[in-house]
Fold these 2 entries.
Entry 1:
Amino acid sequence: MADTPYLLEARNLCQHFASGRGGKRLTVKAVDDVSFGVRPAEIFGLVGESGCGKTTTGRTIIRLYDPTSGTVTFDGREISGGMTRGLRRYLTDNIAMIFQDPIESLNPRMTVEEIVGEGLTIRGVKDKAEVRRRVVEMLGKVGLTNEHATRYPHEFSGGQRQRIGIARAIITHPKMIIADEPVSALDVSVQAQVINLLNDLKEEMGLTILFIAHNLSVVKYFSDRIGVMYYGHLVEIARGDDLYAKPLHPYTRALLSAIPEPNPLTEKTRRRIDYDPERDHKEDYFSGNPVMTEIEPEHFVYCTPSELELYRDQVRGKADA
Amino acid sequence: MPKQQNDTTGNSAIANDIILKVADLRVSFRAYGGRVQAVRGISFDLKRGETVAIVGESGSGKSVSVKTVMGILPGNAIIESGEVRYGGMDLTKVSEEKFHEIRGNRIGLIFQDPLSALNPIMKIGKQITETLRLAKKMSGEEARAKAIELMAAVHIPDPQRRFNQYPFQFSGGMRQRIVIAIALAGDPEILICDEPTTALDVTVQSKILELINEIKRERHLSVIFITHDLGVVANMADRVNVMYAGKIVEAGTTEEIFFSPAHPYTWALLSSMPDLQTKERLQAIPGAPPNMIYPPAGDAFARRNPYALKIDMEKEPPYFRLSDTHYAATWLAHPKAPKVEMPAVLRARIDRMKRSGMLNG
């Protein structure tokens, strides 16, 4: 698995937003120097707190924003350059998106059939009966029935609406899906249904998924590898188990220590670790240029050369113990 | 047992002192389609110095029940029956004028969304002193000093300067601290927290939870804590009420609910979400919560419950006593019911929890 080439690769991706003019000009570095890759049929989880840039990363990849700098390649082809008709077509054919809010992301004036079938119509499927047949097939795949096809979004519950969003994403048979917080707006009892559905579809269709979420337990369960973001930077990438067993970057440690566990025996004595960049890093973390470095196979940390030694020791220490 | 736990549970000498008692409360709403039966006969009590959690999904009636306690139900709500006993009064019958003396002064409330709970065009300081001046009849100077003291108590750095700022100048976590400071201004003895950390990030959430526990200890508060997050429940609660479709389906101490849950809905809640060790397929709960205009007969959860008995569909289960503190409303707990074990996945998870608890303890 480790030598499989990446299907999607972001290199030094930056997305800066500017506001104000002249003296009041302000640049927000929403995504700053982010590099990672997603292998075919893999689920890559992107976690972080609100405002860390995880959603912006997903939206920049699918070109809802134009990246400030850096490159993104998909299946060997660069998708971050100038936008042409051909590139837009290539993007929408291959990558689909599932949004967080299942109410906002469905057009209230369109029926489910129109919403789900729109991708086909745009791709030139003229035959109404054919569109209908494939819409019903997709609805079946996501656990809805053909009688739902003629209804409007407001007639559905949150979980069902999210299923409609998923059907819309997969009807064009994309290679990859970017799922931006697909379950966080849903009730706990329904979240598990949607997670299981995404897992089944991934198996069945060989999907590659970039899974963006803030619920760490869900990300851990669902993802093969996880990237942790903090203030626009990707600070650590590792396989799920490695990340939780031996987090290296101080922010990852702080984040993991804050998860409330549904276990009264451990939860009441849980020690929270705080992250304070000025205390937890030496001077050179801010002045020098920390880079993403591979500490052990498949485990990358954003660090300076001096920290690198420390992290290496820690990994070795864990291995001995 | 870990030491810290004694601190939060503690107060065993006065543990039987009931400060608030809700009995057979029924609340419904007049709506376009009919009458929504949001709360259908719930009873629970709050003892002095303890934290009681109410857990459930959206629409289960948990917020409506505490809004009744606070007397802030919207105009289309009808209290059908039941009472809320507090300090010799029935809060469901108290006049609005009388409620002014209770709300904020004796019962404080922390809302879910700290942004909409604060007035965006009023300085933070004034929002805190408002309560002090109105209810405590303090002078401007006194109120200001007290407000700054409260801001320091909820760990707002540099309270003197922050006193003159507006809500937009505060981060989400800081805003929630302000909301807590306002709730504390009237010096209440009961604090109701309605999903106080749902809108916050995990790292901020754990700080706010610590703060609530800290002020609870210092001020000897009794807390009603509403949440849907079982991790937060495990952290905060001494006792837990699990709500589904307007009823409390299971009530017990936190240990009883987590380690020997008896109602299939509690099983489902505990096993449907992954924890950090979960590898196997999730046990999703099929279907969706019922429409509360037409609540189903029998046990409302029966239609989503693979363990449901025939009688669950027809006759509403009473509370079966499992221990002095543990009750569950399911026919499965009836002595003559067929023996049904909780799902193996959940059993494994509970064993794992106990093991890691032993390691830590």
Entry 2:
Amino acid sequence: MPQEGFHGPLERVDECCWRIPRSYKPGMRVDGLIFASEQLIDAIRNDHSPEQVANVAYLPGIQYASLAMPDIHWGYGFCIGGVCATDPDQGGVISPGGVGYDINCGVRLIRTNLSLGELKPHLKAIVDELFRQVPAGVGRGGQYRFNRKELRRLMATGPRFLMDRGLVTESDLEHTEAGGCLDAAEPDCVSERALERGADQCGTLGSGNHFLEVQVVDAVFDEAAARTMSLEKDMVCVMIHSGSRGLGYQVCDDALKQLRRAPEKYGIELPDRQLVCAPINSHEGRHYLGAMAAAANYAWANRQLLMAQARDAFATVLGRTWQQLQMNLIYDVAHNIAKPEWHEVDGQQRRLWVHRKGATRAFPAGHPEIPSLYQKIGQPVLIPGDMGRASWVLAGMPGSMERSFGTACHGAGRMLSRTAAAKQAQGRRIDQELAQRGVIARARSWRGLAEEQPDAYKDVDLVVDVVHQANLARKVARLRPIGVVKG
Amino acid sequence: MHETFEHTADIGIRVRAHSLPALFEEAAVAMFSAITPNLAEVRPVKELAFRLSAEGTDYLLLDWLRELLFVFETQRLTFSHFTVRLPAPRPGGTQIGEPLPGEPELAAAVLEATAIGEAFDPDRHGEGNEVKAVTYHELAVRPEGDGWLAEFILDI
């Protein structure tokens, strides 16, 4: 286990950015840059994550800097909140650890035409129905089954595959990052073991920090952008946080095993085995990218099926169809992914592979990759907080292209370890405490709620303040949880 | 014996045992304790055999846990008792990473094991954490005093 905290240099760049100079470790190819306020940086110093920012700077072909968002915390290999862009033309690598086990873990936000007042009498019934309908928790499969052939097609096309079953609309696809489909997907690169693990898990929530929440718009900060997103104060929304389930975990696990010898083969020096990587332009690199993209498409289909079940639950309880309830998808973002994108480096447009490990794409207005509806306001950036306080909707800003390869934070960031959080919750009923805050919570296990209690997280408002101030994304609306379903 | 150590997002596990095979057995117990906390309730109904080889002892521990996790995920079996044998490494394999003290270089590490348990029943066995994977970050297997120590981090 490493020494407690970070003892290396952390130089202040400006109000919301700190530098670990390249001189800190001989293998660093670029500086490390951490976005954080004075208030957040002390906790970050006490964590191992700055060391991980420095370690990522070792990766061949890394451009500009190894970056971290203000929700940074200790991960494995990359820190959570880490961003790294590599250039394939400069020997740039792809690192499965820079995507994580939960490939395309992400968030989607669904609006409704219900106000808090209208929903309140039905809230308990809705949360119970969601809990009944949406499979969550350890080792639990779902109601959707796909044979091998169907699974391969689903991985090749993402949620579009569900069109025949009436479980997705064109509008849903339009409002999903990348249209819910990475073209680079190569289902044949996904192992039989991964298929086996993912066969009955598409449409399931999982456990850990994954959730399905009923939320209400608490405050609007940018009226025009909120209107474009069809959000208004007091509106009831649904937020879903999940990823590629066992299929994605196994794709990453397989790749890490396949790449064990790659650093030796390609002469890459690494300070942590979890950072194992291969050149993008290599057989190993291309194989992982094909499998990773297939898993990403599976994840989008998973969140689509979770949304379908949430729509069903609302319709069942309220006796109206989801279309009548106008439960439209506002947006779906990935926050564990690697994608090829155009960015300006040293005055030149270059096609880089951007790794986002617990970080959200935040493209500004006018970017060709965002839906036409959001062209004038910037891409919706969805930031789940904790289950007692708040989540946020932001919009991408030009600063993200200048400073963070088009990226903002992905959440509040954990502050307490799971063990410490569970210890702190001894003798307490977290569900009752949440009820006192006006949140109805249902979970499979006491421990699940204890580990995910609000106190385990940083205050998401402080994290979002940094992102807003650094001009990576601006505040649009704040959402408050009222119903929580967890594994 | 095993204990957890602090890790912000995931679960760090430290295991100690008098011998290397016992270390592997205890590591498996530790992982299943995280997934299905009431291990005492797991009845000896089903026995599965494993044979694995890896580039070194630390990778072998990782592969052993990866294999067990895969069985849990795909067959919904949970286990509470393990018997591990580590036969002498076959010559001709490739060592990756630091060779362990006393371990011949260029040797693959081999494991033969059985796991005893039954079908996962959340009501009896309890629902702990869904373990996504066993990570390589800070993975360590080393002698300590008269015995052995292992540390690994489970991604939650």
